[in-house]
Specification:
mainly alpha, 8 helices, elongated
């Protein structure tokens, strides 16, 4: 019983850390893609997607090049975000409290703009749970994080990993 509690604590902590960094990762990825596209446009007169299309059509081999490294890094980051989004969607659509958990996670961690404070989040959540208080919000937020952690790090994450692998194989550096 003690090990289960320790595992849940670790699961909760890891998931919460991931969620707390979600907006920053999205921002960093967008900046990196923008920077790469600017460099490509200056050097080759087109964005990276257009450049990659031309190289594939021409049959050029980019293995071992800086271009390959940059595109793989961006693709890997995007695939990681897809795994998180896939897990959140699975929680939302399949868990008995999924819709409420989704909105709690969305307003707390996933929305493009961070809410000003807990009261603003609680106010927005009243559309999904009429009598929500601050203490209920914190309790439900912890439940949502734990359930998402079970999807991300537990047995269901294997399904998402299969999706990521198939995306990587079919996308071949496209994003």
């Amino acid at each position: 019983m003690k090990n289960k509690k320790k595992d849940e604590d670790t699961l909760f902590h890891n998931t919460e850390v991931l969620l707390k960094n979600y907006r920053d990762v999205i921002w960093s990825l967008e900046v990196a893609v923008h920077r790469v596209n600017q460099n490509f446009y200056q050097e080759y007169g087109r964005d990276i997607e257009g450049f990659l299309e031309l190289t594939y059509e021409a049959g050029l081999d980019l293995n071992g090049t800086e271009i390959e490294s940059q595109t793989k890094t961006i693709a890997r980051s995007r695939n990681m975000l897809r795994m998180i989004d896939c897990s959140v969607d699975l929680l939302r659509t399949k868990h008995k409290n999924g819709e409420l958990y989704y909105w709690i996670l969305y307003y707390t961690y996933l929305s493009p703009q961070e809410m000003q404070n807990i009261d603003e989040i609680v106010d927005k959540l009243r559309d999904y749970m009429k009598d929500i208080s601050r203490s209920t919000y914190f309790r439900k937020k912890n439940e949502a994080i734990l359930q998402l952690g079970m999807v991300l790090w537990g047995y269901t994450s294997r399904e998402c990993m299969d999706i990521i692998s198939s995306l990587e194989n079919s996308a071949k550096l496209t994003y």
